[in-house]
From TrEMBL:
GO terms for biological process: riboflavin biosynthetic process. Residues 3-188 form the Bacterial bifunctional deaminase-reductase C-terminal domain. This is Dihydrofolate reductase family protein. It comes from Agrilutibacter solisilvae. GO terms for molecular function: 5-amino-6-(5-phosphoribosylamino)uracil reductase activity.
Length: 204
């Protein structure tokens, strides 16, 4: 059975919107696009952990379009060519209403029932599944208890507004901290693995 990992760059208050550039996603009047750029020297270290093993990508349509407009066109010898090679070579499973417009190589549409499609995909043979960006899709995956691992990159900024990784619809679940380190620029790099149900207690 395949595992599903969320890899997300988030602020201290959980915002994940438009980390890479000012024009990436301005919906809702978001004005802080590119907020991870001051920490760009750490990108190779941060991305490396999630890309060490073969993977398939699971993407929402907006993130797919952003990725498809960029990664296939990264020139040879560019600093992030290894990421481009990994993304371009991976199978992309996309939540979309318009499968006929998926032009990036190795792209496939998920069915209309995302939860059912993901449960079936996890049961098939193949590489583990990795999702990035795609906040609306992530909310569905978290609400239906499909996530096995979280790779969270927590940046030392407070944004106050924007699309967040976790919303009130997330399924209550416990995770165990498997790895943690801090980059030279203060980015907290963590890996959490699923650890059953939420446990409660009393100090009394």
């Amino acid at each position: 059975m395949r595992t599903l990992t969320i890899a997300a760059m988030i602020s201290l208050d959980g915002v994940m919107q438009a980390p890479g550039g000012p024009g990436e996603d301005t919906s809702g009047g978001f004005a802080f696009g590119g907020w991870v750029v001051p920490y760009a020297s750490e990108d190779d270290e941060i991305m490396g952990g999630a890309l060490e093993r073969p993977f398939d990508l699971v993407l929402g349509r907006r993130t797919y379009d952003i990725f498809a407009a960029y990664w296939p066109h990264v020139p040879k010898g560019a600093p992030h060519q290894h990421i481009a090679d990994a993304f371009n070579g991976a199978t992309k499973h996309v939540a979309t209403h318009h499968p006929e417009t998926l032009e990036w190589r190795n792209s496939r549409a998920l069915g209309p029932d995302i939860a059912a499609a993901m449960r079936e995909l996890k049961r098939t043979d193949g590489p583990d599944l990795l999702t990035q960006g795609s906040s609306e899709l992530l909310h569905q995956l978290l609400a239906t208890d499909l996530v096995d691992e979280l790779r969270l990159l927590v940046y030392p900024v407070l944004l106050g507004r924007g699309k967040r990784l976790f919303d009130d619809g997330a399924q209550a679940s416990a995770f165990r901290l498997a790895e943690s380190k801090t980059s030279s620029k203060g980015v907290l790099v963590t890996r959490y693995v699923r650890d059953g149900d939420v446990r409660t207690g009393s100090f009394g």
